[in-house]
Amino acid sequence: MNSDKLVAIGKIAGTYGYAGWLKVISLTDFPERFFKLDKVTLNQGGKLETFLIDGVKAHKNYYLFKFSGIDTVEVARGFQNVILQIDESELYPLPEGYFYHFQLRGLSVYDEKKGLLGELKDIIETGANDVYVVDSPQYGEILIPAIKEVILAVKLEEKRMEIKLLPGLIED
């Protein structure tokens, strides 16, 4: 199992009841996927183990998961803060021009005039539009709004993002 091809979809926040049910916080925009999964990989500090799913229920702000082999609250307690992951091949397809955050992190960011600016290190979700945080050796930290007027192209296979800087985003 290649951990580089796994994507986090949830985090275990605690136990529920005495029969080994676990409370999971969703880390996905598509939590409805939980009800269609047969198995999931649990990442416990880099130790990966795949579990079959016996049941899933929505409960308040959580999702309750029952995994095969986790049948008591005592065993379930050992899974606190563990990350639920699935293979990239199981991701929901996005419309053209939309990307998962993990696909964008690490891309080299090029401005049409200034050339290579640096690497996309983080993404800030603002509500209106995302903001890409680019770590630039020459300009320091650059905040790039993720809007059509700025993002010209995303070329995942080339690990490259092409942009058109708006005036005032960086000092010359």
Overview in brief:
This protein is mainly β and 172 residues long. 5% of the residues lie in helices and 49% in strands.
Description:
The protein is mostly beta strands. It folds into 2 domains: 3-90, Elongation Factor Tu (Ef-tu), domain 3 (Beta Barrel), CATH 2.40.30.60; 101-163, PRC-barrel domain (SH3 type barrels). It is built from 2 helices and 12 strands; from the N terminus they run E-E-E-E-E-H-E-H-E-E-E-E-E-E. The protein has helices at residues 73-76, 101-104; strands spanning 6-16, 21-26, 39-44, 47-59, 62-67, 83-87, 108-111, 115-125, 130-136, 140-145, 151-155, 160-163. Strands 1-2-5-4-3-6 form a 6-stranded antiparallel beta barrel. The protein has a 6-stranded mixed beta sheet with strand order 10-9-8-7-12-11, with no helix packed on it. It is elongated. The protein starts with 5 loop residues before the first strand and ends in a 9-residue tail after the last strand. The model has no long low-confidence stretch (mean pLDDT 92).
